Amino acid sequence: ASRDEAKDTMATATKLREKEAAAYAQEKVELDTNIAALGKAVAALEKGVTGGFLQTPSANLVRSYIMEREELPDQSRQEVLAFLSNTQAQGYVPQSGEIVGILKTIGDEMSQSLSDATAAETTAVQTYEALMAAKSKEVEVLQRQIEDKMTRVGNLGVRIAEMGNDIEDTKEALAEDQKFKQELEAGCSTKEAEWEEVKKMRAEEL
Fold first, then answer.
1. CB atoms within 10 A of CB 95
2. Assign residue 48 a region: left if phi > 0, alpha if psi is -120 to 50, beta otherwise?
3. Residue 19 above 80 pLDDT?
4. Which of 18, 29, 63, 190 is most deeply buried (CB count within 10 A of its CB)?
């Protein structure tokens, strides 16, 4: 794996984590709001003071939620909506606990959904942090490897340059040696010729 691939994995994971976190935050807000509204509805029913509650935003929230809750039996939905619309023929009898039971059950289910969502979010955060820690370490190791390679390449370049300089120095030294040799050979030839001339003159004198 390369450093860039590790960074790409981290970037992709971060985008996914941000998306998941935003979805959880929205779900939590909705669940918290609905749970609070159901709690107020149950409290009002248990106290027998439903008139004031029916005029509150919480009553509207409960009404909307009950209408959208597909898994709720039709009879239960109709009873709750009748209560929230204040159209029950005989009025609500708190002692029966029928609507209170329905609302409490819904509230418990929503609380469980919130708990499950929170647990999933916690797990997702831990998984993300573990991934980022591992990938950060991987990037660090790969970065060091890249730096080591660059250092070796740089050192090799210096050695090559030094070797090039040594070759030039050697060429210059060789050229000087060859020149000296030629001068030396020329000098020797001159000396030999002079010596031969000297010997010839001596021979003539004799």
1. 8
2. left
3. yes
4. 63
Asked whether the CA dihedral 59, 64, 65, 71 is positive or negative, the reply is positive
Q: What is the pTM of this model?
A: 0.60
Rounded to whole angstroms, how far apart are CA atoms 116 and 108?
Answer: 12
- At residue 94, the pLDDT reads 40
Helices 74-84, 98-205: inter-axial angle, 10-degree rounding: 100
The pLDDT tens digits for 40-82 are: 888 877 776 666 677 778 778 888 878 877 777 887 778 777 7
N-terminal to C-terminal alpha carbon distance within the chain: 98
* H or E element in which residue 200 lies: helix 98-205
Tokens of 4: 């860039």
Q: Compute how many other C-beta atoms are within 10 angstroms of the C-beta atom of residue 205.
A: 6
Give 183's contacts (C-beta < 8 A, 6+ positions apart).
none
**Mean pLDDT, range 130-159, rounded to an integer:** 88
Tokens of 122: 């916690």
Tens-place pLDDT, residues 74-97: 877 787 777 777 655 444 444 346
- What contacts 46, CB < 8 A, 6 or more positions away? 94, 100
Mean confidence (pLDDT) of the chain: 82
Q: Which long-range contacts (CB under 8 A, 24 or more apart) does 56-62 make?
A: 59/84, 61/33, 61/34, 61/37, 62/34, 62/37, 62/38, 62/103
